[in-house]
Amino acid sequence: MSSEGERPAAEEPAQAADPRLVALSPLREVVARHGIAARRSLGQNFLLDLNLTRRIARAAAPLADATVVEVGAGPGGLTRALLAEGARRVVAIERDPRCLAALGELAAFCPGRLDLLAGDALALDPAELSEPPRKIVANLPYNIATALLLRWLDRIREYDGLVLMFQREVAERLVAAPRSKAYGRLSVIVQWLAAPRLLFDVPARAFVPPPKVTSTIVELLPRAAPLFPAAKASLERVTAAAFGQRRKMLRASLKPLVADADGLLRRANVVPTARAEELSVEQFCRLARALD
Q: How many domains does the chain have?
């Protein structure tokens, strides 16, 4: 379901789970008061449309029993929505002091429900900052979104779910099937550990300032166990080698990984003349086991 054809609605006071949220200043006033102009160096594009942020928060429901980690909270558009939708506790990670000041106003209205953490999300582990049941809900900065997701996959089963915003091109890679242009290393690793689903698009005009790309909200539900047996390190090595030269046959692209690439492929029961984009997640897992 796409919001590509929708016009962003005017910011409205939402019916909140916590009535104190109704007394908050409009988000655009908070942004102006704290002088929060988006900085490209921080990958900032602010989503101030409360109808859209509420829609994202609802996609992560139920929230009443969850600790929600929000990365890159900015001035608090999604943070407000998570609280309004009844999140038990929100841990908001933000590195911009201007945004932290704005978020401080929100925390004062919701004592005990919003914890602010100043820091770089790439250096922090959300699982160490929250108690279960936990979720991650975030409009991720485009410039570090993939790096963050890859880090979180190491402990993916410690989360009840993730609802994340990516630029559309990256989102399509998460759900891509074999033999498609978007299918690659990220597709294999993510689908091995989680069930990804595209929820809806967010048009560029909904942001301040508008980015040059369409964004997509993605839901990732952790699998109880990896889709097929394999060691993650070995699977990463195999997919890196195979997709690093995706136009070559596997017997050639895997040679930097192992001298006897043909032998590796035989042990995994994979056709040596196949190319990386033709292999399923199961076949890549067989190659990882054969490598071990």
A: 2
Angle between helices 168-175 and 185-193 (to 10 degrees): 60
Identify the helix (H) or strand (E) that includes residue 84: helix 77-84
Structure tokens at 199: 């929820």
- Rounded to 5 degrees, what angle do the CA atoms 53, 224, 172 make? 45
Domain C-terminal end among 190, 222, 254: 222
Q: Token digits for 3?
A: 């919001």
CA–CA gap between residue 106 and residue 24 (Å, rounded): 8
In this structure, the answer to whether residues 84 and 135 fall within a common structural domain is: yes
Q: How many CB atoms lie within 10 A of CB 26?
A: 13
pLDDT tens, residue by residue, 184-232: 999 999 999 999 999 999 999 999 899 999 999 999 999 999 999 999 9
Nearest to 200 by CA among 211, 214, 216, 189: 216
Residue 11 lies in a domain: no
- DSSP H helix total and E strand total for the chain: 11, 9
Cα–Cα distance between 273 and 263 in angstroms, integer?
A: 13
With contact defined as beta carbons under 8 Å apart, do 80 and 92 qualify?
A: no
Return d(Cα 278, Cα 284) in angstroms, integer.
Answer: 10
Global pTM value: 0.90
Summarised one tens digit per residue, pLDDT across range 28-56 is 898 889 898 878 887 788 998 999 999 99
Cα–Cα distance, 130 to 90 (Å, whole number) = 9
